[in-house]
Amino acid sequence: MPNGSLDSYLHAHITHATLSWTQRLHIIKGVASGLLYLHEDWEQVIVH
């Protein structure tokens, strides 16, 4: 990834850029929304 991994941002492995709790919450909501879509709305079965 050009800007590093999400793991690096969440766990402060990248010292020049940290995420605020507002940004972290926004990411969490996006991930949860994606998982809900995969589990409830998508018609195909996938393994993840």
UniProtKB/TrEMBL annotation:
Task: Outline the extent of the Protein kinase domain.
Answer: 1-48
| Cross-referenced InterPro entries | Kinase-like_dom_sf, L-type_Lectin-RKs, Prot_kinase_dom
At the top level, the lineage of the source is: Eukaryota
A GO MF label = protein kinase activity
Key words, A-Z: ATP-binding, Nucleotide-binding
Q: Which residues form a coiled coil?
A: none
* The protein's name: Protein kinase domain-containing protein
